[in-house]
Structure prediction request, 122 residues.
Amino acid sequence: QVQLVESGGGSVQPGGSLRLSCAASGAIVTIYSMGWYRQAPGKQRELVAQVASGSTDYAASVKGRFTFSRDNANNTVYLQMNSLKPEDTAVYYCYADLVLRKGIVQVRGVYWGQGTQVTVSS
Prediction:
């Protein structure tokens, strides 16, 4: 079993900051990629930021405002969100593409956190 536990969401005024964290736990063998998506009401889920193959990618809409970081030793990722705008309001989901040990076999899969609400409003 794998668990992705997110924290750090909340409500903030425009221009404010929040920091999200996501910790992966379980019988993890290796993590290929890990990152954040978000889904606003009535919209499709979109990539916010991720690290894969050593490269960090950001959505154009958050570049220069959001910073993604990773603590490999603790299988934890962070998303520092600055200069928040009302259009950043969404449920933010952490994901991990990883290999899990199940008994004597190893299984690769994509796992998701439960989501954390971010609301930017005056």
